[in-house]
Amino acid sequence: MYITLFKSKLHRGTITEANINYVGSITIDCELLEKSDILPGERVQVVNVNNGERFETYTIEGERGTGIICVNGAAARLVQIGDQVIIISYAMMEKKEAPRFKPKVLILDDGNKILKIKDKEEHGHIE
């Protein structure tokens, strides 16, 4: 049996751009993608902390070191520049693999710089 677990997370990223005139997706600084083990083109869920919107899209590499998190296309209507978001990727694995699996959780500051990298989440601990 396969189950789906969260694989990676960018916690409390800040939206730097919203571009409605783009085909679609979310552009993320390639350093953040690499450190979080999220691939270009990978499906992600985006949760807007400011307004509660949740949507799925795929990732595009943004310029390294810029801290860019830009929502493109129709989903740009669901965010505002400065909103905080949580970006989550998931992976399917055999149930027996799950107890040993360690996700990558990047805690970000307001400028989308990495404050901390964790391999688990604990209830009630925002960081």
What does this structure look like?
Helices cover 6% and strands 48% of the residues. A nine-stranded mixed sheet has the order 2-6-3-5-4-7-1-8-9. The protein has a single domain, classed as Barwin-like endoglucanases, CATH 2.40.40.20. It is built from one helix and nine strands; from the N terminus they run βββαββββββ. The longest helix is centred in the first third of the chain and has 7 residues, at 30-36. The chain has 127 residues and is mainly beta.
Number of strands: 9
**What overall geometry do the principal axes of the alpha carbons give?**
globular
Kindly report the CATH topology.
Barwin-like endoglucanases
CATH architecture identity = Beta Barrel
What's the CATH first level?
A: Mainly Beta
Biggest beta-sheet profile = 9 strands, mixed
SSE string, helices as H and strands as E: EEEHEEEEEE
Output the radius of gyration: 14 Å
Number of helices: 1
Broad structural category? mainly beta
Helix content: under 10%
Strand arrangement across the biggest beta sheet: 2-6-3-5-4-7-1-8-9
Function: Catalyzes the pyruvoyl-dependent decarboxylation of aspartate to produce beta-alanine.
Cofactor: pyruvate
Pathway: Cofactor biosynthesis; (R)-pantothenate biosynthesis; beta-alanine from L-aspartate: step 1/1
Keywords: Autocatalytic cleavage, Cytoplasm, Decarboxylase, Lyase, Pantothenate biosynthesis, Pyruvate, Schiff base, Zymogen
